Amino acid sequence: MIRDRRALAVKIVLTLACVVTPLIAQTPPSLTYPKPHTGGVVDDFFGTTVADPYRWMETATAERDAWLTAQSESTTKALAGISDHGLAARAYQLDNGASVSRALLQHGRLLFTLRTTLATRDPSGSDRALVVPKGGTTITDYKMSPDGSLVCYELSQNAEHTLFVLDIATGKQLPDVVQDVYDACQWLEDGKRFYYISKGAARVHVLGQSADEDVTILDRTAKSPLALNAHENAWLFRFEHSSKAIATISAGHDEVRLALSPPNPFDRDAQWQTVANYGDSVVEGFVHGDRIYLVTFMDTPNFKLVSVPLASPDLAHARSEIVDDPDSVIDDHEIGEAADAMRYFQANFPV
């Protein structure tokens, strides 16, 4: 028995030696890594200084392009001299396996993306493909109609974005096509119309009509009820538990300005009510019940949640909902099916 165990041990050692020896014997090539210069940029975040020596790389310059080229050449040369022992094939196999993302459950209907395919799970429990992009086209976003019968999805190809509408139960494509969009649609409560952004304008599409007939709600012209400058885009959001719509206006930085729609947001002569300006340090706002909730970093580094009444949205008298936590950051929120249900998520960063 002891002799058999010794023989087995010797066999295992020899087997391992045969596997490991090629790895040990293969000397990795020397790597001369290109060294970029460091700058002296230092930011001050609420009294805490943070150095950013590579800020200069955020701007396209000849120096940055030369460094990127040298980095790529150095890496390619080093990898060319190393045998991957089948790792590349295995990585490709894993990367092309089943990967579910962006699941959306609404009104008993489940939608999800399986790699690049938009699919649904039928009541029988079987999965069914709805949209299979081809030719370099990808699904960038999708939204289910309020009753769960339709899906408005966005296809992207060569930086061009187009909206399509599909009947989930039958898989039939509706004739509605909206081109040159900037963001996915936002369904209105009747499930027959949706908001979208195109060429800096917030518009509304009516199912069954040509996109040429779509009504513009907000844009950069002098006739817009909200003045937008050349660098701003406006997103319109409708919330299930409120008859109001809210416009989120961004100029490419974290802070946004918010405005509340009139009872009829399609009235170009009606005035929108300002809720927050850029100086209020608000990054997000949403309607829930009879209040507007705002995520802000005013006087706090980790964000806080405040709210104001829909009837009188005055930030000067905002109610504190979630106070600043030095050990966590407000990361996301979710409005529940019931009008009095809302959850929020905090990302913890232990020091």
Number of helices: 3
**Average predicted local confidence, pLDDT:** 79
The assigned structural class equals mainly beta
Order of helices and strands: HEEHHEEEEEEEEEEEEEEEEEEEEEE
Q: Low-confidence parts, pLDDT < 50 over ≥5 residues?
A: 1-25, 337-351
Residue share in β-strands: 35-45%
Distance between the termini: 55 Å
Shape: globular
Quick one: how many beta strands?
Answer: 24
Spatial ordering of strands, largest sheet: 3-4-5-6
The largest sheet, given as strand count, sense and whether it forms a barrel, is: 4 strands, antiparallel
What is the rounded Rg? 27 Å
Structural description of this entry:
The protein is mostly beta strands and 351 residues long. 15% of the residues lie in helices and 40% in strands. It has helices at residues 2-25, 62-80, 87-95, and strands at 42-45, 48-51, 100-106, 109-114, 117-121, 127-131, 138-144, 150-157, 160-167, 173-179, 183-187, 193-198, 201-206, 215-218, 233-238, 245-250, 256-260, 273-276, 282-288, 291-296, 304-309, 319-322, 328-335, 342-348. The chain has a four-stranded antiparallel sheet, with no helix packed on it. Strands 7-8-9-10 form a four-stranded antiparallel sheet, with no helix packed on it. The protein has a four-stranded antiparallel sheet with strand order 11-12-13-14, with no helix packed on it. The longest helix has 24 residues, at 2-25. The radius of gyration is 27 Å and the shape is globular. The chain starts with a helix and ends with a strand.
